[in-house]
Specification:
Oligomer: homodimer
Number of domains of chain A: 2
Number of helices of chain A: 16
Strand order of the largest sheet of chain A: 1-5-6-11-10-9-7-8
CATH topology of the largest domain in chain A: BirA Bifunctional Protein, domain 2
CATH superfamily of the largest domain in chain A: Bira Bifunctional Protein, Domain 2
Helix content of chain A: 25-40%
CATH architecture of the largest domain in chain A: 2-Layer Sandwich
Largest interface: A-B, 98 and 98 residues
Strand content of chain A: 15-25%
Radius of gyration of chain A: 29 Å
Chain lengths: 434, 434
């Protein structure tokens, strides 16, 4: 006998068996409906992409550490997409001539990253990407902030379970130059210290800042500014506020949707103005659920036409961890509505007929493929979540009747075969879900 | 200025822009609903799998020609799944202890094969896989045949557009041994000639048969037997008919669902009894749309427990080609139901309020992100398929009214802002689709 192969999926990837899949599909469906109510339309694209679309920004060496790459027989270097943004930028650049901007697009795609598997870090994850292309007004930001709260509500999230922390690179730059007095060439390095602000003790941050030439007085000023919240915006020049996407949001009725937070920097090179992250407020689980922002030139790798974008990617692992931690996971949907059980193999044909009529009425119906022991089939129907069973016995069948049982109450009635659909409708008590 | 990268997807892969994606999603949704009405439940699994699960059957050299493979930093050889059957066999073997057989599972997954791109041959395709595990009675076959006709009907296919050709390896073996008199060791080679029956002229086939030791008389007998249709089954021994899965189907009222056809062989090594293919009947397009069959030991690579399976995989390329050729592609869904158009930037906030109420009622609603020129916004709303627009003008707004326009009739009425949702409901004339 040959050696058996392992039944485990490749490390960092996941099998989704039907019960878990049902939970995922319900959550995704609620999110899709919510996203579509804002006029976003769904697209999709390939898993394999030319490797250079990822290497252009980050350099080949860095990309190699996270990318799954391969070379085809034509010598073409390919990568499994680690994220959707370069793909969608490619598609937008390719179709820009036919599109009427702004466009609102979304997708739900699997992405691969070579990561050490640990909580929240898998090698294949699914990501809902929501983006608007060709809009540079703060109305775009406001729409997204409202959408994010709607998406959280759609999956059961309450406003006290998460916080939407928003920054604007333009405001941050204004704080650093106009208030703290950091010269322009130092902005990037000081920003990356701010990105680590919540992860390191004060002394470490102060030492790092000092090594960049930030004085002790400047560091104290920086600390004060970062703690000031949105009040700091009023201290910035009109020129900075006018370039900003977030200053107008803070001055509008959309202000209550967000928490202005200059600590949100995000590492990606794309973002040019607004950046945001949604954090779980549970102290035991305090981390970023997802985030995104604005990029002034999304399609630069592919086109000389400058197309601004705004969007985010919501990963499935953190999303489902959040739902699980807050008790918000839906229960798996039942597998069937009705089981039709013939008590004899000669009754398979009428069973198929009855099942066909029930399916025609929209119900999900099973008939037995193997044994026909009533007790076992009833237990099976119950486990599959059926509301009703139709039992076809040889005795009844001679008078063209069947037994219809309500599995929730246990009540059973003898019904003329022509009335089975309406008898089932009375029991299931709702329109078929499909 | 740096050199621009190509906007084309990797050869043999496809971008699905929203209009095409909408068509696909509608077709898939109809198929899912149909499949679920038979009690099948959806699952999913990883794109990356250990390469050996594909190489075990076909040998490493053959696998290398079609497989996209890569090696991770731990030296693990991986492949992008070229099909779903080994993955689902792995999952079934892994979870057999918790499952109550038979189980009905389906999925819709992307698979990768290194193919020369040509019509119907892409390198990444999507495949709906539908399988039942743990059932070996012909009731399983009958259920699948009925399901296949329902699936074809669900996407608009008529019975004269396709034919469901079914064979049984056990019956074919019976024909070859009992009727033609081929000795057992020759069965496999002669079967592979039958597999090529429709592709080659008689002389070629006869010469190939002759080289296997088939006499001219035997070849003539074979020709007659293959043309006899299901009548041939009565000439086989009771022993063969009893082992067969298809003889009982031909003797039942499910017989009308299929065309018995001993020319259907299928190359895969898995199949042990029933094999079938659905063919387009259009002579200009006559080819196999999809197919499948029965395997007596699906999980053999992973488990000593023998679990029979029956199933098929329906690829998206041939499916959508069929629908296109027969004029059955649905039209893309509209992007939005309602556009809310404020005529002044000061009216953005009430526009968001009205949009929020309409979304709360389930409608897909857009508000402008850039320009606010009424003519352009109306044209945009029309192009997006909106049924209604809500126009917020400064004059009206002072009296808390808005204009609601029916885009199909052009009729427009001034409505109190509190009555906007009901005014839109009257125009859209249907419940929201979400």
């Amino acid at each position: 006998m040959s050696q058996l192969l392992s039944t485990a999926p490749y490390r960092g990837t996941r099998d989704f068996l039907p019960a878990e899949m049902s939970v995922r599909l319900q959550v995704f469906q609620r999110l899709y409906e919510c996203i579509e109510r804002y006029g976003f339309v769904r697209y999709d694209g390939p898993v394999l992409e030319p490797a250079e679309i990822y290497e252009a920004k980050s350099g080949r060496e860095i990309a190699d550490q996270q990318l799954y790459t391969l070379t085809d027989r034509g010598g073409r270097r390919l990568a499994l997409r680690p994220e959707m943004t370069p793909s969608v930028a490619r598609m937008i650049a390719a179709s820009a001539g036919q599109l009427q901007f702004p466009v609102r697009w979304y997708c739900n795609v699997n992405c691969h990253r070579y990561e050490r598997p640990q909580r929240g870090r898998v090698r294949e994850h699914w990501q809902i990407n929501v983006d608007t292309f060709g809009a540079d007004s703060p109305a775009c930001e406001m729409e997204f902030f409202e959408l994010i709260h709607d998406m959280m509500a759609a999956v059961g999230g309450q406003r006290d379970m998460y916080v939407l922390r928003v920054n604007d690179r333009i405001l941050l730059e204004g704080i650093l130059t106009e208030i703290v007095g950091i010269p322009a060439p130092g902005i990037r390095d000081v920003s990356s210290i701010i990105d680590r602000w919540e992860k390191y003790p004060r002394e470490t941050l102060a030492a790092q800042a000092s090594s960049l030439g930030v004085t002790e007085a400047q560091f104290t000023q920086l600390e004060t500014a970062l703690k000031a919240g949105e009040d700091i915006v009023a201290d910035l020049s009109a020129e900075v506020r006018e370039r900003s996407q977030i200053a107008p949001v803070l001055a509008s009725d959309a202000r209550d949707l967000i928490t202005f937070d200059p600590l949100i920097v995000r590492a990606f090179e794309y973002y040019t103005s607004t950046v945001f992250e949604v954090f779980d407020t549970d102290p035991a689980n305090s981390r970023s659920l997802f985030g995104g922002g604005r990029y002034s030139n999304l399609t630069g790798l592919f086109s000389h036409e400058q197309i601004p974008g705004f969007g985010f990617g919501m990963g499935d692992v953190t999303l489902f961890d959040f739902l699980d931690a807050h008790g918000l996971l839906p229960t798996p949907r039942n597998d069937i509505d009705v089981a039709v059980i013939p008590l004899d193999v000669d009754l398979d044909s009428p069973a198929r007929d009855i099942a066909r009529h029930l399916r025609g009425a929209g119900y999900r119906v099973s008939t037995p493929l193997t044994q026909r022991k009533l007790g076992k089939e009833l237990a099976r129907a119950d486990k599959a979540g059926a509301d009703a069973v139709v039992i076809i016995g040889p005795q009844d069948w001679r008078t063209a009747t069947v037994a219809v049982r309500d599995l929730r109450t246990g009540e059973q009635a003898t019904i003329a075969v022509n009335d089975v659909v309406s008898a089932v409708q009375r029991i299931v008590g709702r329109q078929p879900t499909n």
